[in-house]
Amino acid sequence: MKQLLVVLLVGMGVVTYGQKYASEKSLVSFYSHATIEDIAAKTTKASSIFNVATGEIVFSIPIKDFDFAKSLMKEHFNEKYMNSEKIPKSTFQGKIAGFQVDATGAQQAKATGKLTIHGITKDIDVPGTVEFANGTVIVKSAFIVKLEDYEIMRPQLLWKNIAEQVEVKIEFTYKPI
Q1: Residue closest to 42 by CA, chosen among 24, 23, 22, 69
Q2: Does residue 14 carry a pLDDT above 90?
Q3: Beta strands per DSSP E along the chain
Q4: Quick one: which of 64, 39, 63, 60 has its CA closest to 160?
Q5: How confident is the model at residue 169 (pLDDT cuts 50, 70, 90)?
Q6: C-alpha distances in Å from residue 6, one per residue of 24, 63, 160
Q7: If pLDDT is split at 50, 70 and 90, which confidence band does 155 have?
């Protein structure tokens, strides 16, 4: 985990003390509504760095660490859909704009950058919020991911079990580095 944070820090460049924040807590979840069965999973093992001075943000999500209600769902997710042995993580690298560092309460913001899922990288723009509270920063977002955009194939026999798109939610609580 520490090695990942070092890589994330180096990737963002060097800035002065007090502008960078590392994730203290994370929650990444996704939800898929399909005809036969809803699928939901979450993980608290994502890592992130956020530079409030520049708005730069990066995060990494270990795919194998998503928890499902059923162990068979987790097995299929990792082996049949995400190929997590070969592609073990998803990442985002970009910028958040539209927030004021000295403002209080949750502020509407927009993240723009490159999201990599299943080894495929796409440019995305997603809405979210940034909140500065008690020395921490909380970043939240909810957005839709279309499976075909990231070449995640749905088997023809199971098309009623798996939706064409999933809702992804992220929440990171940061503390100063």
Answers
A1: 69
A2: no
A3: 20-32, 39-43, 47-51, 56-62, 67-68, 89-97, 105-117, 120-133, 136-146, 165-176
A4: 39
A5: very high
A6: 15, 20, 42
A7: low
**Rounded-to-integer distance, Cα 82 and Cα 152, Å:** 7
d(CA 88, CA 82): 8
| Closest by CA position to 94, among listed 57, 140, 47 | 57
Contact 28, 168 (CB under 8 A): yes
Within a 13 Å sphere around the CA of 93, how many CA atoms are in the beta-carbon half?
9
Burial class (CB in 10 A: 0-12, 13-18, 19+), 8: buried
Closest CA to 139 of 62, 31, 13, 49: 49
Please count the residues of the chain: 177
Residues 121, 77, 96: CA angle, nearest 5 degrees: 35
Return the number of other C-beta atoms located less than 10 Å from residue 125's C-beta: 10
What's the sign of the alpha-carbon dihedral 60, 43, 176, 135? positive
Domains by residue range for the chain, with CATH: 2-176 (2.40.128.110)
To 10 degrees, the CA torsion angle through 3, 120, 64, 156?
180
Q: How confident is the model at residue 17 (pLDDT cuts 50, 70, 90)?
A: very low
